[in-house]
Design brief:
Organism: Psychrobacter glaciei
Protein name: Membrane protein
Pfam family, one: DUF347
Order of helices and strands: HHHHHHHHH
Helix content: over 70%
Strand content: under 5%
Number of helices: 9
Keywords: Membrane, Transmembrane, Transmembrane helix
Number of domains: 1
InterPro entries: DUF347 (IPR007136)
């Protein structure tokens, strides 16, 4: 799947504040929306799916212990991210990776330990996400990620992100397993969904903020379905590449792209 490097970049023009663009760029806590952003985001979602399975089964920690460990680690990483004064690539993307793993574990606990059907989880997290967006907009009058420049907005942002990851995990598993669509077909369906949103943005001129969040939500089930398709045994509809291999390869790719983002950011700072 290919996503245009310019996807949703024009969102920068929305919800302008009285601050100058230089001031906004200094303090906004979220990266620019480019092809690299979408690549890291999608791979982070896949790592969230495979890394959770790796810890549960390869380390034999079990779901409850793994969930507890990841909750503690996510809390530590989130504090590090919240204390940053502006966008620091490694801090931001490390938080995304951990929130991806935690979102996966939340849904897995609801399914495996509480017996909640994936369809109910999908509907429930959709409602939770809608409520978060409603409260966020009522308070801040914008959902644009180009204005994550206050502590309150960042808390809303990460709450919404966690909800999207839990929702995406539930939706991805529901499509692939609950509806028996399969991992490969589910991957294709979610990829087509993102392509349609991209077309709606460019052709129909749909709202940029709406398109961004819809695409962001769909990248989670896309990454979950892709991760399962690559890692699950052939008898289960996967390619049997293993959770270890997929986790390591995607993590290395994420590290490389985050390094590139860091290099670009340092170059911009030195020129200023």
């Amino acid at each position: 799947m290919s996503i245009s490097p310019q996807l949703l970049v024009s969102e920068n023009s929305l919800s302008k504040s009285s601050k100058s663009s230089k001031y906004a760029n200094m303090f906004n806590k979220v990266p620019q929306i480019t092809l690299v952003f979408w690549l890291i985001k999608m791979m982070s979602t896949t790592v969230g799916e495979t890394a959770a399975d790796f810890m549960i089964f390869n380390f034999k920690l079990g779901l409850p212990v793994t969930s507890l460990i990841m909750t503690v680690l996510f809390s530590i990483v989130l504090v590090i991210q919240l204390k940053a004064k502006d966008y620091i690539p490694w801090k931001y993307w490390l938080t995304v990776v951990f929130v991806s793993i935690l979102g996966t574990l939340i849904t897995d606990n609801m399914t495996d330990n509480l017996g909640i059907p994936l369809s109910y989880s999908t509907i429930g997290f959709s409602i939770i996400l809608a409520v978060v967006f409603a409260i966020w907009y009522a308070r801040e009058k914008t959902l644009s990620i180009h204005h994550i420049d206050t502590f309150a907005r960042e808390l809303f942002y990460w709450t919404a992100i966690l909800a999207t990851f839990a929702l995406g995990t539930a939706a991805g598993d529901w499509f692939a397993e609950g509806l028996s669509i399969g991992y490969q077909n589910s991957t294709l369906i979610f990829a087509i969904g993102i392509a349609l949103i991209t077309g709606g943005f460019y052709v129909l001129k749909l709202n940029a903020v709406l398109c961004f969040w819809l695409a962001y939500i769909l990248t989670r089930p896309l990454g979950a379905a892709l991760g399962d398709w690559l890692s699950q045994p052939i008898k289960n509809g996967g390619l049997d590449l293993g959770v270890t291999s997929i986790s390591v390869v995607f993590l290395l790719m994420i590290v490389g792209l985050v390094g590139y983002e860091t290099y670009k950011k340092s170059g911009r700072i030195s020129r200023n």
